[in-house]
Every structure is written in structure tokens, then in C-alpha cells.
Amino acid sequence: MELIKLHATKRSTRGKGAARKMRSKKNIPAIIYGPKIDPMMLCLETSEFDKIIRDRGASGLFLNLKIQGEEEVKSKVVMLKDLQMDTFGIEYLHVDFHQIDMDTLVTVSVPIVPVGISKGVKDGDGMLQIIRRELEVVCKPADTPESIEIDVSDLDIGDAVHVEAIDLGEAVEIPHDVNFTVITIVPPDAGEEEEELAEDELLEEEMAETEEVSAEDSSE
Fold first, then answer.
1. Calpha distance 126→176 (Å, rounded)
2. What is the pLDDT of residues 124-165, one digit of tens each?
3. Which of 96, 114, 134, 207 is the most exposed, fewest CB within 10 Å of its CB?
4. Are residues 94 and 51 in the same domain?
């Protein structure tokens, strides 16, 4: 896990009017909270934050937040918890950070990265189809992978990689109730059928999770 440095300034103003004024000056209102600290309102510089998002994306982002207060600069390790943008996805409206304990398990979305050229694509004109572009993992912050690389070299048309085949080691767990498809190789004319299959698998997984929650509620 890489900690990305981000500067912030402690602020005391609050409300919609203060937030609009802040954004008009190319800043972003933000807040940091956590189990061991009182919520703290912050101000971020839009250009610095935007560069991080453009370079790194918003998923699984851990930061070393340098907070400028009245007298000193405090450092806090945080995770980007929520990012609010305007209707057009252009302007940052608000950012939520969650202070993390490096010894506590966190749930993070990690991108899938196919590695190699599959046999089915190379020799059979098949198409590589990524059914899940991100997977949620549970681990300690220091063990969070930047990406999940999946070697697709040996996959032929009709082959697939399911979640249970992905091993990230003992320190990283991929929680799941259904052994869903992550990557598959389909014939050139089977794209639409595979999309329907992916939707069916997503629905099946959601139904399984709903049934599990219902069973837990009934037992209480």
C-alpha cells in the first residue's frame, strides 16, 4: 500500500454558503472522522486533489493527510470514504475521509488487471470480457493490493476465471457468497449473450446476500 501525500487546512466555517464560497476559490470542503477522533472540517486545494484522483482513481485510496492547523501541521493516515460531485461529474462538492488504524481490517475495492494475451483471443479471434472490473477485499491497510492481476494466457474460448480461483494470500480475503465469474473468453458473436449471463450472475449473488440477511433477521 502506498500512502499519497495530500495537504489540507483546518476550517471552522460550515453550511452551504460557506461551502459555495470555498468552491468559488478553487477549494473543496472536506471532513475527517474516525472512531478515535472528533470530526474535523477541512479545506482542500482542488488542483492537488484533482491530480491525485486523475492519476490514481478514487477506489482504495489511502492518503497521508497533512493538516495545517493554527499552530502546527498534523499527519493522519486516512482512506477516501466518499466523494461527492455535481450532476455533470465536473466539480467536487465534498470529500469524506476516514482515519484508519493500521492494525484494523478495512474493506477496499481493488481494480482487476488482466495479464497476457489469452489463447482464445490470439488463436481463435475470441474476445476477453471482464465481468467484474473491481473486487472488494478485506485486509489490513498495509496489505491492500494496488490491483489484482489475473494471468489470462492459458484461457481459451469458453474458459473463465471465477472468484474462488483467485488467491491473494492469507492476509487478503475476497468476501463472496457465490462463485461468480470475473473474466471470461467469449466467441466474437457471443458478446450480448455473455452480458446477459453476467447480469444473471450479479442478480443471483444479490439474491443470495438478501436471503442471508433475511435468515439473520429471522434468527434474532
1. 28
2. 889 999 999 999 999 998 899 989 999 999 999 999 999 999
3. 207
4. yes
